[in-house]
Amino acid sequence: MNGPPLRKIRSFVRRPGRITAAQRRALETLWPRFGIDFRERRLDLAEVFGRRAPCVLDIGFGDGEALLTTAINNPGIDYLGVEVHDPGVGHLLVLLERAALGNVRIVKRDAVEVVAHMLEAESFDAVNLFFPDPWPKKRHHKRRLIQPQFVAALGAILKPRGLLHLATDWADYAAHMRIVLAESVELAPEPVENLSGDILAFRPPTKFERRGRSLGNDVVDLCYRKRSAAS
Questions:
Q1: What are the pLDDT digits (tens) for 155-192?
Q2: In Å, how far are 69, 90, 168 from 214, measured between CA atoms?
Q3: Residue boundaries of the structural domains of the chain
């Protein structure tokens, strides 16, 4: 993928997480079934999922329950989830085994590296990035995942007319997202109300959303479409 190198600043901190015995077992025994090891080689999504189907990239899926719900409701769509935290990955692996789903795969790695090294240009119908760490302190804003270089990289892996769907419960981060996306030459705003019938825009509630609402935070959804070659 051409373009400037992506930044080295991490958008996350690996904190010692509380992992259950079931999650640890899942990481050890279910990874070969649902996991994809990171490597600097482009994925063939048709080979990964055993078919050609619309594909969605889900970045930072947390505990995985929202991703699971979406995948169950849309068996004709394939989902590639990216997450860095072991407890969340382990939890989703347990859920996938119970549901016997075949349309979800996981990469346990920094999304910036995954997008830069593993994903083909124009290979995804949608990218979901729900409730990323807002890094609220001003000195930490450089750690926010939504930055011009990363947005450009996401635009590159989206198919023409592909959808980028962002959500946050931090008003300041929502404003930051709007500013960054306004600079994009590939992505144009798509009013959320225009997407009520689009299954790729469906977003079930997440644990982070429920927590934010309990604190009185307003949830903001922002959607953008990749411009077609003619637009």
A1: 999 999 999 999 999 999 999 999 999 999 999 999 99
A2: 22, 26, 14
A3: 21-226
Q: What are 105-115's pLDDT values in tens digits?
A: 999 999 999 99
Which residues are annotated as catalytic? 133
DSSP string, 127-190: EEEES-----SGGGGGG-S--HHHHHHHHHHEEEEEEEEEEES-HHHHHHHHHHHHT-SSEEE-
CATH superfamily of 21-226: Vaccinia Virus protein VP39 (3.40.50.150)
Q: What is the pTM of this model?
A: 0.89
CA–CA dist 48, 207 (Å, integer): 29
**Residue 93 above 60 pLDDT?**
yes
Centre a 10 Å sphere on the Cβ of residue 4 and count the other Cβ atoms it contains. 9
